[in-house]
Amino acid sequence: MSSASDTPGAASAPLLSMRGINKAFGAAQVLTDVHFEVHAGEVRGLVGENGAGKSTLIKILTGLYQADSGTIEFGGAKVSITSPADAERLGIHVIHQDRHLAGRLTVAEQLYLGRSEGRYGWVSRRQLNRRAAADLERTVGLRVAPDLLVDELTVAEQQLVQIARAVLAGPKLLVLDEPTAPLASAEVAQLFATIRTLQAAGVPVVYISHYLQELRQISGTVTVLRNGANAGEVDLAGRDDALEQVVELMVGREVEEFDRTRTAARTPDPAGEALSVMSLTVPGALRDVSFTVRPGEVVGVTGLVGSGVDELADAVTGNRRHGGRVSLGGRPVRSPRAFVKASGAYVPADRRRDGALVRNTIQENISLVALDKVTAWGGLIRRRAEKALAQAQISRLDIRPARPQAVVGQLSGGNQQKTVLARWLAAESKFLVLDQPTSGVDVGSRAQIYARINDLVDAGAAALLVTVDLEELVGLADRILVFFRGEIVAELRRGEATTDRILALASGAGQAGYADASGSAGADTELEFA
Amino acid sequence: MTATATRNRPGLRPAPRAADILPRLIAPLVLAAIMLAFSVLTPTFLTGDNLLAVLNQTAILALVAAGMTVVVRSGGIDLSVGVALDLAALAAAAAIAERYVPWVAVVVGLAFGLAVGLVNAFLIVVLRIPPFLATLSVWFIGTSVQQLLTGGGAPIYLVRSQVPEGFALWGNGYLLGVPFPVVAAVLVAGVVYLALDGTRWGRELTVTGEQPGASRISGKRVGALGASAYVLAAGVAALAGVVLASRTYAFIPASGQLYVMDAIGAVFIGATLSKYGRVSVPGTMVGVLIFALLANGMNLAGLSFFWQGLARGLALLLVLLLGVVLARQRTSRVRPPATATTAVPARKG
Questions:
Q1: Which of A357, A369, A425, A428 to substitute to test the interface with B, most B CBs within 10 Å?
Q2: pTM above the 0.80 mark?
Q3: Domain named ABC transporter: which ranges (chain A) (predicted)?
């Protein structure tokens, strides 16, 4: 068994070996002769831009898709995996990027769903809940009431529950697809601790992520896919410029710098007021929060799970009932409709549910808010005008495919998100609320999204950016508000904000008495940020 | 398919494969097969007179189903359209029996039907009762109301010679040789189709039905859109009720209920025409015609009325099963959100 960061010796037989995998959807060849091996006790990174084939490869491994050709060997024997149940029987557990939690179950039920130990009727509900609470705390450091409905959890908490469920099942191989996208830093640290525990027990982990810095912390070797084929493998421990090498393999060309878009400091109009939030209170989430956002600035907001930031965007945009006053350009916001009427734009965190219209075309997605502009007498939609409206945004944001009739559910995450943003650009919204705008979005699309946000704000728009991606926060925000337990604990200006400092504040450092009560929340876990 | 096939080139539409399209063609193929079978079996089936007669008999179902299509598109279901139909027929027949002028009878009939839609809208949109349960309750209540109003469910029979022509025309008149009910059904289906797939209202209704959260965030009047669907469905059913009362010169309690399940069946047969299971007026009309021709053909072939339910059920199962089985073979890359047929999902908070 290899130790933490070692590359497994070539001599040992791999636990998993996928060879010659081909897969096409219609005329589109998605995977071409892909091979992928995982050895016992390693954390294997799997990276590539959106659409490179990572998720398809993993869905073949779990039986959600069938490969057109190719073989899978697991534990030395050739296996045929035709359903997720087959995969779980083999001990292969996957946390998919698009989460599939059954919303009407309680946390405890979800945790033991479909497992013989958790048969109801034999176990008392109270015992079950008690055990669930202990298991959650132990495996992923999550503290939530086990009798809450899964629906009532935030996206991050749902993610942690799912990871706990997989870990509790005693996996032989754990696959995490973009696991940290919804997580804040301390939760990431806890997740890494969980992964290292598994690794020490010889259980290999396949780790798919757009966050290359994370891979450096957790992974030994990284397999890079590009355009559905193997682009190469990189030993991250091997060279100092290993990450640059990975990026190069991903995009297939040399990249000058791997950095977030960073513009010069802006000078917002000190008298102007785009968004004003007064004494905002959401029971159980936010307490008496007040702040303003001025035209021409990006205000960033961050916090850990339970800090209230997950509820903030919904409350500010009128999508969640709250106490206190929110106004936009002087007009009170009491409903999503009032928010939109006041020229507000909201890019929500749950893209596939509340953002992109997955069964509609790009054209229909983009015109949704600006339907006024393309509606003729009698309410008839003028298709040609609608198409022109869409095409302007498609080229502005470089949405691919650049075909207004393409169905959005079939686009990559990055292009879906660009389409959602395009909807508000087409409506010429003046105030943006962005909740995790680049979660699960590839490097290229991310840069384009940042660039458009900067354009808008430079032109006098205002933006509220809610994100757990601290580099994004530091790169984009002019001011940063750090939330802790439902309150703003710090306001940092551009220049004073570093990821370390934000993380410390978000974890409650400097809060009197918190250090003693922090338990396993990970405030003291060391974390490295580039 | 070979691995050397095209790369995923941006901007190029991948050629549709037979396996992608076939599941969506099942319902039209079943319709064609039914027509073919009966035209071989019974010589009178494929005559103009017979087909026009079939359409005339189908008009009421077509109207009800067009309204149902709107409700299902909005993410709901309406089990009470039969009540809207019945109350409209009851009110219109009673008004004629009381010797009111025809246009009053028609307006009163439509108003009674629309009232059912408004009650549904109130229960579902304001009180947030799931559509299935809300309309089920309204159906129970409406059935009882009919019996109370008619003194225990006694039919109202109108004396033909005393029914003014202005009312009799609705169910028995002809326009350019086409029975009026058929004209009404075609007009209504056309308008509903245009409204659903060509107007802003239809676009917003569809988005609200499929992804209510996205619709709300985009500033749409989610409640008003949902309410409009129930009112429209009830209004169309009320029109069907007026036509039925006129055609039969009578009101027979609970006759509307016959159409509800047929309409739901037709709507979901029609949903198989869409890649994403989205219901549409053209699809619904294919379903309506399958049911209608099945019934007519069996009549002509001398089969008992009692076989018709069996035939309808089997046709529905056949279309749905073939559609699902064939669709399963091609792996869907789009994971649409669960089709909301029973609940108007409400955002928490």
A1: A357
A2: no
A3: 16-252, 265-510
